[in-house]
Specification:
Strand order of the largest sheet: 2-1-3-4
Structural class: alpha+beta
Distance between the termini: 47 Å
Number of helices: 13
Low-confidence stretches: none
Radius of gyration: 19 Å
Helix content: 55-70%
Number of strands: 4
């Protein structure tokens, strides 16, 4: 049995997509990140970075935890022998597009969401990340203009890694709602719809979306200090704590 530990985030959905595509039995365990459950010792034993998702493979002689969503996707690909080419050049292409998501798309989309939703008055930051998101979307659209899937002719890890972030963008980003980005990104739009229609995608999104009421309640119940801890600000500012430790 695989345990997927997380909440309603694109990174958690990535792993649900892979688990559903592979037909692996799994269970979801919700983490209230606004209450700080990710900082509990039992969670940190699974993931010292205090982030979701975490994949725990209970089929091993001892439960084995994998943190970082790209690493977890690769773990499942190796475990099942699926969705990652064996041929060296094709494998390298697949890994390049997977790492593009992990190193560029994921962080930039995340920063844009943060400033758009929680600090819209920071206009320079908001515009900076909006511009970068638009650039990355163009790269994806250009890639898909001559390729059925991100890594080539076959659906794979890169598609599963990218789709949840684009889904979030479609739901939240003004780039889509107000500026008609889909019209300028026809190849990405076609790809997005093809992934959305896959039966495994339907099952995975339903499973993760079922956690949304718990996340909404968690956010509503979070006080100012809890939100400061979640965002790393105020008395939970990590830069301040680091400089204080150096001064001591």
């Amino acid at each position: 049995m695989i345990e997927l530990v997380g909440m309603t985030s694109p990174n958690v959905l990535k792993l649900a997509l892979m688990l559903e595509e592979c037909g692996l039995a799994y269970r979801l365990r919700h983490v209230d990140v606004f209450a700080g459950e990710q900082h509990a010792p039992e969670f940190l034993a699974l993931n010292p970075t205090a982030k979701v998702p975490v994949l725990v493979d209970h089929d091993q002689p001892q439960p084995f935890a994998v943190f970082e969503s790209a690493a977890a996707l690769l773990y499942l690909a190796e475990k099942t022998g699926r969705f990652l080419p064996a041929a060296p050049l094709a494998r390298s292409t697949a890994l390049q597009w997977l790492m593009f998501q992990a190193s560029s798309v994921g962080p930039m989309f995340g920063q844009y969401v943060h400033f758009f939703r929680y600090a819209p008055a920071e206009t320079y930051s908001l515009r900076r990340y909006e511009s970068e998101v638009a650039r990355l979307l163009r790269i994806l659209d250009d890639r898909l203009s001559g390729s059925a899937w991100l890594a080539g002719d076959e659906f794979g890890l890169a598609d599963m890694a990218q789709w949840p972030g684009v889904r979030t963008g479609n739901a939240l980003f003004p780039l889509f709602a107000e500026k008609g980005a889909w019209a300028a990104l026809p190849n990405l739009h076609r790809w997005f719809d093809r992934v959305a229609e896959r039966p495994a995608t339907v099952r995975a999104t339903a499973a993760i979306d079922a956690l949304l009421p718990a996340d909404v309640r968690a956010f509503e119940n979070a006080d100012t200090d809890a939100l400061d801890r979640f965002f790393g600000r105020g008395r939970h500012d990590h830069a301040n704590s680091l400089t204080a430790a150096v001064a001591a």
